[in-house]
Amino acid sequence: MSDSQWERIKDRLPGREGHVGGTAADNRLFVQAVLYRYRAGIPWRDLPARFGDWKNVHRRLRRWCEGGVIERIFRHLAADRDNDCMMIDSTIVRAHQHSAGARKKGGADQAIGWPHGGLTSKIYAIVGAAGKAVALSLTPGQRADITEAAPMLDEVDPKAFIADRAYDADPLIEKLEERQITPVIPSRKNRRDPRKLSFRLYKNRNIIERFFARLKQFRGIATRYDRLTSTFLAALQLVFAIMRIN
């Protein structure tokens, strides 16, 4: 993590100087330990000794997950965005066999599904024209793309909304039009009255494809090893935040 990246997030972490409670001298080392683990895709117990006891690092990550620390960092950075146009898409990540087996609380499936091909999770993201993520969601791998579009749309207010043909559904189109957001979504082939499409805007969809390509350079994201949704989601939020200020 560079000094400029650290300056953007350090004042929003617990244990900072002047914060209620004890002052943590190793906040930066801890964040770098978490990033290293997900970048390398290693088991927690293989974390290099320079980061300290791996059990303490994992325990602290769980504490920050439960306290919503990482989510607040992501939302703070995501609030700085350009609303001209945004795009949504999803990507499938393989869930390692070690990610299965978590206890289900209240019927929670831990966002791991059983589609054809084995255990998978699906990451959804809404990205701005600059390639910065502004919203995200995590579901089991077999979930249809259209199911997450409307809830995630409630978090943003773009002038134009770009998506592929999988998002061409009347309820979503109507919601966009009600909010005076221009839908840039190709019509399905079975539509009787295809909508006009701005290809000038639609060609920008490669931005989100490049975003997912960068995201999957983190091997611990490209393959999910975490059993709990909250842990994996927090890792995504942290990686998204660092990618925003890279």
Automatic annotation (TrEMBL):
InterPro entries: IS402-like_dom, Transposase_11. Pfam families: DDE_Tnp_1, DUF4096. Residues 1-74 form the Insertion element IS402-like domain. Residues 84-243 form the Transposase IS4-like domain. It comes from the Bacteria. This is IS5 family transposase. The lineage of its organism: Bacteria, Pseudomonadati, Pseudomonadota, Alphaproteobacteria, Acetobacterales.
